[in-house]
């Protein structure tokens, strides 16, 4: 236990923030059901389906994302006769409530917008596919400007010539902040796409991507034995179940890639030992028979070896301990500054 304490000054501490990134590639072969669809889990409620990297009954399986579809109550597809019509509306409203929020004046629920101008008169995204990525992949957030989603918009999904690439081009400096879920970017079909022509949104902290169903110009749905698609996207969203529409999107997915972000916050303490400080040790073995053990001659100056740094609270309670890789010699003819970093 220490018997000598030194108080930190304002200049002795500094806070830093470091962002660590990993590249996360999700190929269409995994999402489309690599293991005979045993890595795709559907639920009895039929509201969404989950995608795993291995068969989901395996202890090695990791949850990748949840996939669902929905449309607004004002959508042209909305009809009480549709399969799961209320559930599809509820999915859209739930996502809108979390990601878009309510109008501050009228209190009405906002809809997803092409240009991110939630309260404005921009074109609304009324029929959407929602991809909610697992926190295991996104960590603290998706890195701005790194999100890319490739889908096959027409013909058989074995034809990469029909691949459409969506990305949050320019989002590093052009991201939006008017969402209750945090920052988000707009998905465009190219870096030269005009403002207001977005086809989706990616919410960085929430780890959710929203894609308009209108990007699919050909047939849609799970493949048949002839490797063609069975119906249009409008027909699937209206008459099909949420799970079957999710199946259709998965079979159109070619690739997803983004960088995740881990935010590492640190406090750095500069523990300074001046020339006249910490030259003695509180260790009981430092003195033997009235003599300082490390002194060969009684007239020699005192010397100590620093092996440990303790960080104490206001009441001198020990809060953290840092061990040095090797003892550091300390005497009256030298000074030491030991850098201690706490990560959280």
Short description:
The chain is 13% helix and 38% strand.
Q: Tell me the fraction of residues in β-strands, as a range.
A: 35-45%
Secondary-structure element sequence? Answer: EHEEEHEHEEEHEEEEEHHEEEEEE
Q: What low-confidence regions span 5 or more consecutive residues with pLDDT below 50?
A: 224-228
Strand line-up across the major sheet: 2-3-4-5-11-10-9
The proportion of residues forming helix, as a percent range, comes to: 10-25%
Number of domains: 2
Say how many strands there are: 19
Radius of gyration: 30 Å
Q: Tell me the distance between the termini.
A: 26 Å
Q: How can the largest sheet be summarized?
A: 7 strands, antiparallel
The secondary structure category is: mainly beta
Query: Mean pLDDT, rounded to whole units?
Result: 88
Oligomer: single chain
Which word captures the global form?
A: elongated
Number of helices: 6
Task: Give an account of the 3D structure.
With 344 residues, this protein is mainly beta. The chain is built from six helices and 19 strands. The chain has helices at 28-31, 85-99, 135-138, 171-174, 233-239, 242-252, and strands at residues 13-27, 40-42, 49-52, 63-71, 127-133, 141-142, 148-152, 163-167, 184-187, 200-203, 208-212, 219-223, 229-232, 253-273, 287-288, 291-292, 303-312, 318-331, 336-343. The strands form five sheets. It has a seven-stranded antiparallel beta sheet with strand order 2-3-4-5-11-10-9. Strands 1, 6, 7, 8, 14 and 19 form a six-stranded antiparallel beta sheet that branches. A two-stranded antiparallel sheet has the order 12-13. A hairpin with a 5-residue loop joins β17 (303-312) and β18. The longest helix has 15 residues, at 85-99. The relative contact order is 0.17. The model is unreliable at 224-228 (pLDDT under 50).
């Amino acid at each position: 236990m220490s018997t000598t304490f030194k108080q930190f000054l304002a200049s002795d501490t500094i806070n830093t923030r470091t962002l660590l990134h990993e590249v996360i590639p999700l190929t269409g072969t995994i999402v489309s059901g690599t293991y005979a669809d045993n890595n795709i889990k559907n639920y009895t409620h039929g509201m969404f389906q989950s995608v795993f990297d291995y068969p989901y009954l395996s202890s090695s399986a990791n949850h990748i994302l949840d996939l669902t579809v929905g449309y607004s109550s004002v959508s042209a597809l909305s009809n009480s006769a549709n399969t799961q019509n209320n559930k599809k509306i509820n999915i859209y409203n739930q996502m809108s409530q979390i990601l878009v929020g309510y109008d501050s004046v009228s209190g009405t629920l906002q809809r997803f917008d092409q240009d991110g101008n939630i309260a404005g008169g921009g074109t609304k995204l009324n029929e959407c596919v929602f991809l909610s990525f697992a926190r295991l992949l996104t960590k603290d957030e998706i890195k701005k400007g790194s999100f890319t989603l490739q889908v096959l918009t027409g013909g058989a999904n074995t034809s990469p010539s029909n691949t459409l690439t969506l990305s949050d081009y320019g989002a590093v400096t052009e991201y939006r902040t008017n969402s209750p879920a945090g920052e988000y970017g707009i998905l465009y079909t190219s870096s030269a796409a005009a403002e207001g022509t977005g086809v989706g949104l990616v919410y960085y902290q929430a780890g959710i991507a929203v894609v308009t169903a209108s990007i699919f110009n050909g047939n849609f749905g799970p493949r048949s034995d002839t490797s063609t698609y069975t119906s249009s996207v409008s027909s699937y969203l209206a008459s099909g179940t949420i799970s079957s529409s999710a199946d259709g999107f998965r079979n159109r997915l070619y690739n997803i890639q983004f960088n995740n972000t881990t935010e590492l916050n640190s406090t750095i303490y500069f523990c300074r030992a001046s020339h006249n400080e910490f030259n003695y040790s509180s260790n009981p073995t430092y003195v033997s028979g009235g003599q300082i053990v490390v002194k060969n001659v009684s007239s020699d100056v005192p010397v100590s070896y620093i092996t440990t740094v303790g960080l104490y609270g206001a009441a001198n309670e020990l809060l953290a301990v840092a061990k040095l890789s090797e003892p550091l010699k300390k005497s009256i003819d030298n000074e030491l500054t030991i850098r201690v970093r706490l990560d959280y």
